[in-house]
Specification:
By secondary structure, the chain is α+β, with helices and mostly antiparallel strands. The protein contains 1 helix and 10 strands, in the order H-E-E-E-E-E-E-E-E-E-E. Strands 3, 5, 6, 7, 9 and 10 form a 6-stranded mixed beta sheet that branches. A 4-stranded antiparallel beta sheet has the order 2-1-4-8, with no helix packed on it.
Length: 172
């Protein structure tokens, strides 16, 4: 008898909690749609560009405290796009970004260039809001000195581009 009463209470609890969970899920979905609409309205940008020794995931990285790296070592640049556009069609969400990278001397001479170094192309059933990218450079062919790393982000859906720079130094 106690087991039947427990199961009945459990069933009643699940039935009464489900509308709350469904309402919260709907609220979150509506909020995500509003975020997408705002991102589509505003210009593309780059929120974050940081020189790092290691990148693990979105928002999870080890920044180089002094932006110095030894000649021959590897350096990572973590970046987060701001206001990337999302196209919604047929119940799917599409986001498509490419990014070029450049390295310039302190005197603005180009020493490295790679177009379409990073491609972020999602076609998903649910929207992606936390987007990041990572550029990786091995500094074995760059002499010690001060440099500027530049990224140019291209939004293939909006037809816009944005750029950002980060100074770093190669040491012996």
């Amino acid at each position: 008898m106690k087991a039947k009463k427990f199961l009945f209470c459990l069933l009643v609890g699940v039935m009464t909690a489900s509308p709350v969970a469904l309402a919260q899920d709907t609220d979150v979905s509506l909020l995500k749609e509003k975020i997408i609409n705002l991102q589509n309205m505003y210009p593309l940008g780059i929120r974050t560009l940081i020189a790092c020794s290691k990148v693990t995931d979105y928002g999870s990285y080890e920044p180089l405290l002094d932006n110095r790296v030894k000649s021959g070592d590897m350096i990572f640049f973590y970046f987060e796009p701001q206001n990337p556009s999302t196209k919604k069609a047929g119940g799917r969400y599409e986001m498509w970004l490419t990014q070029d990278m450049f390295v310039f001397t302190a005197q603005q001479q180009e020493v490295f260039k790679k177009e379409s170094a990073v491609e972020i192309h999602y076609q998903t059933m649910l929207p992606r809001l936390d987007i990041y990218g990572v550029d990786q450079l091995t500094l074995d062919k760059i002499s010690p000195g001060r440099y500027i790393f530049k990224v140019v982000l291209h939004d293939k859906i909006k037809g816009e581009e944005a750029s950002a720079t980060c100074a770093f130094e190669v040491v012996k």
